[in-house]
Design goal:
The protein is α+β, with helices and mostly antiparallel strands. The protein folds into two domains: 12-230, Glycoside hydrolase, family 65, N-terminal domain (Beta-galactosidase, Chain A, domain 5, Distorted Sandwich), CATH 2.70.98.40; 270-645, Glycosyltransferase (Alpha/alpha barrel). The chain is 25% helix and 26% strand. β1 and β2 (27-29) form a beta hairpin. The longest helix has 20 residues, at 452-471.
Length: 692
Amino acid sequence: MTAPHPTTDAPAASRSTVTEHEGTTPTMTQPLQPLLHDSVVVLTAPSQAWSAPDGRIDGHGIHGFYHSDLRVLDRIVLTVGGAEPEHIATAGASAAEAVFTGLARGIDDATADPRVRIDRTRTVRAGVLEERIAVRNALGSSVRTVVEVELRADFSPMQQIKAGLTGSEHPVSVSPDGDAGAVLRSGPVSARLSAPDAHATVDGAAIALRWEVEVAAHGSVEVGWSALVDDPTAVVGGAAPSAEWEAFAAETGDSRLASWLHRALADLQALRMSTVERPEDVFLAAGAPWFFTLFGRDSLWAARMLLPLGHETAASTLRVLAHYQGTESVDATAEQPGKIMHELRPAALTIPGEGVVLPPLYYGTVDATALWVCLLHDAWRWGMPRDEVEALLPHLEAALAWMRDYGDSDGDGFLEYVDTTGHGLANQGWKDSGDSIQWRDGTLAEGPIALCEVQGYAYEAAIGGAELLDAFGRDGGAAWREWAAELKERFASAFWIDDPAGAYPAVALDASKRRVDTVTSNIGHLLGTGILDDAQAELVARRLVSPELCSGYGLRTMSTDSAGYWPLSYHGGSVWAHDTAIAVTGLARDGFRAEAGLLADGLLAAADGFRYRMPELHSGDPASKTSAPIPYPAACRPQAWSAAAAVAVLSARLGLRADAPAGTFTVDPDPAAGSIHVRGLRFAGQPRDVTA
């Protein structure tokens, strides 16, 4: 049970109230998931600070300083001379820093030019929040003023905030720590505030920091404070930035691609994490704010897209997921022998109002196991050292066996899923919202569900796994190639739907093995896997660039001619950058360069509209009717696979192919992509510069 907020009788956001307006019917207000689109985030995993554009953190919605899955502070408000600075700009050199610039006109002179300026630099490192507040005076006389920062301890769990609620699990205490600091505690978690030269006062959960300063004429004064969090319950921690990624640079004829790559790599550096159990193995957190942890599917896809920057992140992601690979059948966690996990949390994840309760280590994913095999095969071809690959071969064999023995739960030859607990994820592919798999008339499909793209992943995994087994002298390669051939034949027979606009694969088979007929972006994931023949691949390529699926800002998750389509539906009409990038990669691999270029151009237009920090998803509204992409207001950002999509687009445009065992690195650029010069690609552990 959640305790009330320390400064109220009950969590403010959790109380339903009746609101009446003259001439209207009274409406019941209820907790709502916070919107994110107009907030600023500063982050280094596993810590993050969300604020208004001017830097103000006032407990509204997502605003606060978080570490791991806990909001430590929900109020950080700056005043200078008794008033908040008037905001004029926000900038930052990296994802870990933002500079909020404002004016203190209350202590300025009466002329038009502003002469007293406040630069507030907020920096987030793993477990640390720091602020430096510079008061700059261009007047001809000195200024005496008071700088104050108001803070408030919160300790609300992330899952509460996502549900629109607040309230700590344990009592919150704040105690002075000398004259210039305080110690905040809630259960096992603590935070130490330090503010050199300040006078600190404590009132319940509130802390006030006060500096009396004199700023000389044409001079400046800087004060600062910091918060250091200690969380002994954490299961993940931060990881150092990649020096190889810092060495990467791109110059492109289309400046949008270069700008997107620059921002994406900065964000990806801030998403690097490791687990407490395996601190040496780095992976990418799925995204901020909700998914700041290890996710099987997300971390695998992001690492796979980033292989042109080196095999190292892929190798460490493979190892950490192998560490958690299932060894027994446990219904409560969905664990099965050989299965790759879905997500890792410090405690059970409860989603209020949705009946979803996920255990701390949850295996409810149907696709991560095949994707793990695909990544191991690709990492080997990009130069993952032979001994590192060989060490993972027992895990490869277990993962392949899971596809055959457990992934196909009813023996029909396809991988499918169903939640048997009643409180797990109803859908367990990448589109995991409750309404994501539906018929063209809008009704929901009933499980067990066999997703089309999962069969493509399984085919590719079986072929790649067989190649690895052969290369390392292990048995089973021929059997897995035979298994893949049979899957390909079954898929061609069971999934295809005739249509006047051209046949297409069903998004899934339902519990009765009927073809679920909605046209979706899932079919784009089939390209490049090998499960389609040439004629089938051409039908899919043509469908992907149809006006019903191609928005001009990327690939819609659902076709506009479906009854369930809505441009702001999470999985039913929105655009996901990673989803489009997977389709772009598959199109390029199968030789459909014009179609790949069209979808890639859409992503570049969207990236430009979002100032090159691509969100988790955005609206499916057509580019022909809006001059900029419309945000999905609750989308995470940065998101690992959305950022990694920039590298996937670059790779497709350069036509990169790697075969380290054969010693070949091939570049076959798309002539339509224009000039591209890249420094810092990596193949077999060595840097490669490419000019196209």
